[in-house]
Amino acid sequence: MLLPSRNFIDNFFNDPFFERPFEHAASQIMKADIHENDNSYLVEMELPGYKKEDIKADLKDGYLTVTASKNETKEEHDSRGKCIRKERYTGSCNRSFYVGKELTQEDIKAAFSDGVLHLSIPKEVPKAIEEQPRYIAIE
């Protein structure tokens, strides 16, 4: 039996056309489109096969993290009711975006429809400079 040369194996894994199914799995499952308008960012994240109750979004230390979890069991029975096949899937994926420490959970709006999570994230609003000087009392 001939084994492939070490050079062949090294080149195989460095080949840009070699598909690595588990590399960056979350970014492949949770594809996101990000749009910018004058006062916010709009994120549309694809989550096919997930239900609204499977999805959680949280904000911590300036990072917005979306997590999708699924636990499902599929059974197939023959005409007599005997189980022929039973498959289970349990898994989760998550993806994080840095949105800044100034935002709170109330600032971010989220909606889920037709397998797409829609997030509206306001841009950081610069604080207005006060026109009238305010003096600091000196004791």
UniProtKB/TrEMBL annotation:
Q: Which CDD domains match?
A: ACD_LpsHSP_like
Mention any Pfam family matching this sequence: HSP20
Looking at the record, the residues that make up the SHSP domain are 23-139
Q: Organism's domain of life?
A: Bacteria
Alphabetical list of PANTHER family matching this protein: HEAT-SHOCK PROTEIN 20 FAMILY MEMBER
Q: Which family does it belong to?
A: Belongs to the small heat shock protein (HSP20) family.
Name the UniProt record assigns to this protein:
Hsp20/alpha crystallin family protein
The organism is: Schaedlerella arabinosiphila
